[in-house]
Amino acid sequence: MNNSTFAYETYIATTQEKLWVALTSGEFTEKYWFGREVKSDWKEDSSVIFLDKNGKTTDHGKVLKSKPYSVLSYTMQCVDDQTDYEQTPRVTFELKPMGSTVKLTLKHEYLSTNAFQGESEGFYGINNGWPAILSNLKSLLETDKILPEIVL
């Protein structure tokens, strides 16, 4: 990881089609993303909103790239965060078939070069949050169950 990118890879015993639905269906994201629903029509330049368990918008963004079954990229900014555009993180999922599994690569990156300097609260959240979310996603797709409660 450099000072502006967090990357994570995992291998999931599923199809690209099922993984794509899991990433883009708000009903499905609620199951593995600790109650958070991600909503969009997933067309480039469309908005993305993130809703908590109570329906409150916690984050918002814009779809940057949407190539079904292979690449999904969007910006993601907390509604309380007023940082400039260069500080808005980009989240990219790449799906690559590998036999009967799919290699899922996540990149959470900033244009700014030192976004993750030190042990900031943001760094802690990203460094611990994404692995928990993606582990839950993997478990749900492979076993139809989420992991026992994870305390971050």
Topology readout:
Elements: E1 5-12, H1 16-24, H2 26-32, E2 37-39, E3 47-51, E4 57-67, E5 71-75, E6 77-78, E7 90-98, E8 101-109, H3 121-143
Antiparallel strand pairs: 1-8, 2-3, 3-4, 4-5, 4-6, 5-7, 7-8
Strand content of the residues, in percent?
A: 25-35%
Structural domains: how many:
1
Query: What is the gyration radius calculated from CA atoms?
Result: 15 Å
* Number of beta-strand segments: 8
The CATH topology assignment is Alpha-D-Glucose-1,6-Bisphosphate, Chain A, domain 4
The total of helices stands at 3
Overall mean confidence score, pLDDT = 86
What order do the helices and strands follow? EHHEEEEEEEH
The CATH C-level name is: Alpha Beta
How does the helix and strand content classify structurally?
Answer: alpha+beta
> What is the fourth-level CATH superfamily?
START domain
CATH architecture classification name: 2-Layer Sandwich
State the end-to-end CA separation.
21 Å
What kind of sheet is the major sheet?
Answer: 8 strands, antiparallel
CA-based shape? globular
What proportion of the residues is helical, as a percent range? Answer: 25-40%
Give structural notes.
This protein is about 25% helix and about 35% strand. The radius of gyration is 15 Å and the shape is globular. Strands 1, 2, 3, 4, 5, 6, 7 and 8 form an 8-stranded antiparallel β-sheet that branches. It has a single domain (about 5-145), classed as Alpha-D-Glucose-1,6-Bisphosphate, Chain A, domain 4 (2-Layer Sandwich). The protein has about 150 residues and is an alpha+beta fold.
